[in-house]
Amino acid sequence: MADEIMTVKQLAEYLKLNYQTVYKKIQKGEIPGSKIGRGWRFQKVVIDRWLTEEKAVIKIKGNQPSLF
Questions:
Q1: DSSP H helix total and E strand total for the chain
Q2: Who is most buried in 12, 18, 29, 39, counting CB within 10 A?
Q3: What confidence category does residue 63 fall into, taking pLDDT thresholds of 50, 70 and 90?
Q4: How confident is the model over 13-52, as pLDDT tens digits?
Q5: What pLDDT shows up at residue 56?
């Protein structure tokens, strides 16, 4: 589903990262999301676009192939 909304836990599973790592990156503003009430929500299409853009930045910089 293209307009899927994910929680922090779901995002962590999707990115295959630890929940705490994802939460720290959210707090630093490194992952695009919206705070709704006390929780964070993430649109899958926005996350997919962000991943693609991050991949392009890494390629341009010539760093090792790692998103984080």
A1: 3, 3
A2: 12
A3: low
A4: 999 999 999 999 999 999 999 999 999 999 999 999 999 8
A5: 56
**CA-to-CA distance for 62 and 45, rounded, in angstroms?**
26
| Joined tokens for residue 18 | 């630890």
- The answer to whether 6 touches 36, Cβ cutoff 8 Å, is no
Asked if the model's pLDDT at residue 11 lies above 70, the reply is: yes
Task: State the DSSP H helix or E strand holding residue 59, giving kind and residue range, or none if neither.
Answer: helix 44-61
C-alpha 31/C-alpha 24 separation (Å) is 9
End-to-end CA distance of the chain: 26
